[in-house]
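Weekly structure sync, notes
Attendees: PL (lead), two postdocs, one rotation student
Agenda item 3: pending single-chain targets
PL asked that the sequence for the first pending target be pasted directly into the notes so everyone works from the same version. It is reproduced below exactly as submitted, 107 residues in total.
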Amino acid sequence: MSRPPKSESRRRHTIRFLDSEWAEIRLQSDRASLTTSEYVRRRSLGHQVRSKVNSKAIAKLSSLGGLQKLLLTKSPDCRVELNEVLRQITCAIKELKAPDEDTEATW
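Predicted structure, written out during the meeting:
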């Protein structure tokens, strides 16, 4: 979500929530690595909420997968073990890419 133009500034507004609702909102915003305000803004405007942490984790795991493939070509005697690690990395990436019904839902 882009910043508002300079002529338009954010103003404070009051919204009432039950304590249990607020706790859930805080939990979900923490999971998405967003401020509570940004999380509520995105959800209330119908935007998807994607975790910044997942994107970083996917990038790191992809990098590790590439290094693992390099090791496979250089160390054929460890092929079984290296293939298993590569399979685990691939599974972890697929899990992170799978939509999380808590943070990916749009209203």
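Discussion points:
- The mean pLDDT is 80.
- The chain has one domain: 19-97.
Action: rotation student to compare against the earlier draft before next sync.
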